[in-house]
Structures are given as structure tokens and as C-alpha cells.
Amino acid sequence: MRLRFLIPVATFAGIAVVMWYALFILNLTEIPTEFVSRPAPEFSLEPVPGYGPGLAQADLATGKVVLLNVFASWCVACMAEHPIFMELKAQDTVDIYGLNYKDTPDAAAQWLTRHGNPYQRTGMDLKGRVGIDFGVYGVPETFIISSDGKILDKIIGPVSKDMFEARIRPFLNGAGS
Amino acid sequence: MTSYFRPLLLATLLAPFIVLSAAAVFIEEKLDDPAQEARAREISGEIRCLVCQNQSILDSNADLAKDLRQIVRERISFGDTDEEVRRYLVDRYGDWVLLNPPFKMTTLFLWLGPVLIFLLGAFAMIVFLRNRNRVVEGEGSSKLSAAEETEIEQLLKSDKSGKNS
Q: Quick check: is A23 in a domain?
């Protein structure tokens, strides 16, 4: 009973820990994808003019792990991650497909001409409906897709080098999973 | 007069904003059937805008909210029930899109937490009050010694004032 004076101190410490966690660790703006280990939704899209064949659900089941990057010419953060995708393409590390989200064909084509095209295939989601079917709520987002076309994980926001190593590389190494 | 003037002026100036905030509902297209439109708004009011998180898609001006409102109207005009419309959105964005979280295993603590904390507090208070009562009773029942009893008797009987006065 000597330690009773510690009750308020312990209560305060408990509340402080919860709040510290919520403020600095928990990221509420990142909503994890609902699709983990579910197949990608059905869709079929025309390509960005001049940039490879179009993109459909069937194209995602390739027998190896691929990335599906949601991008747009109006998206500033997409320019930040673009060089990383160009590098992946140059090194032939992983195939990347581009889902062009709520853009115009001309603007998208111009953007790819200016910044380079890292995508094997592109699809134009002019109305953003396919994006919604994928649960996209902000651009850029990058889906990691398994060999049989299931969604393994999603990265929200621009992909950085570290993020690639931490969250994408493991899937590439565990080939076929 | 002056003391009334400033609050009145403020109230007059601010009144339009009350109306404005209530009218901040974005409608780009209505369904023809007013009953369906009412349902669409009711559902939209309970769907979280994923971009501006603490607003419903009914109150939000974000592009995604606009698209989602459109989808809600579309689903309803296709003949979906309210539950099916919600299901459609939850399938894509998870329970997080519902401003009112569903009651299930993963949200058990969210729903029952407040009751649990209340019960804990009530229990702690009962224990505390009981202990305090016991202390008070203990003091009241302590017996006076024989010498003290006789001193009190004397003091009560005598008309003399005490030493201290």
C-alpha cells in the first residue's frame, strides 16, 4: 500500500505512452489496402497513346512479381519517385505497369516523353473508376502484384530507395510468392 | 447602449456563416427520384472522405469525394440496397470509409472500451469510499480511558469556565 502514490503517476505514464504512439508512430493518413492477397479487380484500359500495349486484369498475372504504379502528369510527388522506376527499368529489376489516373491522353504522353517511360504497359483511367476499384485514394500509389495476379501490398505516396529495399525487394527475392 | 452594440454587430456579421456551413453540401447531379436522392445523401453522409479524413464525402470538396458521391448515386440508381452500397465501398477502401465503425472482433475494444473504463473507475471509487468509511468508523469507536471519562463528568457538572478561557 506504500506504493499507492504511484497510481496517478502510472496512469499519466500510460496515457502519455498512448498519445506519443498516436502522434509520432501511428500514421492515420495511410490506410492499408483492403486487397492484400485478393486478386486485382477486373479492368481493361487503353494505353497512353504511343506508350506500349494497353493494360487489363489478365496482364497482371505474369508468372513473376510485378509493380503497378498509379501515376498522373498532374501529380508532383510522382516526379519524385519516377527516377527510381527509371533505374529499375534500366537494371531490369522488376516489370512495372503504369496506371495513368484521371489524366488526359496528351498530357500523359507528354509527361512520359519528358521524364522517360519505365512502364511495360500503360492504361489510361480517364474517369478514375479503375482507381476506385483498386481502392486508390491518392496518387502516387504502387501495388505489388504476385505472379498469379494477386495484390501483395500497396505503397502509398512516392516510393523511395529505402522503401523499395524494405517493402518491395523481399517480395522479389521470395520469387513467385 | 454601447454594451449591446458590439455583440449585436458581431452576431449580424457572423450569422451568414452559420447558414453557409450548413449549406456546404456539394451536389453536382441529383437523382430524379427524390426518395433515392435522399437515400444517396444519407449514405454519403456516413462515408468518410479518404483525402480529408474527418469529413464525410457529402461535405467534402475533394475530387475523390466527388467521384464517390457519384458512385453512391449510381449504385442506388442500379437498385442496390443501402447495405450493398456500403459493401461496395468497404470492399475497396475497408471499414475505415464508414464513419460509424461496425461492431466486430477487431473493433471490440473501441466499442466496449468506454464501458470498461467506466466500470474500472466505478470499482476504484467504491473501494476508495469504503476504505475511507472504515477509517472514520474506527476513529469514532475508540474508547476513552477511565481517567478521561471522569474528567469529562467533572467538566460537565461544574459551572466553572475551563482553563483556557
A: no
Q: Please judge whether A31 and B94 are an interchain contact, meaning their C-beta atoms are less than 8 angstroms apart.
A: yes
Domain ranges of chain B: 20-102, 108-157
Report ipTM (2 d.p.): 0.79
| In a domain? residue A28 | no
Residue B45 has, within 13 A of its CA and on its CB side, a CA count of: 8
Q: What is the pLDDT of residues A85-133, one digit of tens each?
A: 999 999 999 999 999 999 999 999 999 999 999 999 999 999 889 999 9
The CATH architecture annotation of domain B20-102 reads: Orthogonal Bundle (1.10)
Domain limits for position A101: 34-173
Numbered residues of chain B with Cβ closer than 8 Å to any chain A Cβ: 50-51, 53, 63-64, 67-68, 71, 90-94, 96
Rounded to the nearest angstrom, the minimum Cα separation between B51 and chain A is 7
In a domain, A107, yes or no: yes
* pTM tops 0.90: no
* CATH label of the domain that carries residue A139: 3.40.30.10
A137·B64 Cβ contact <8 A: yes
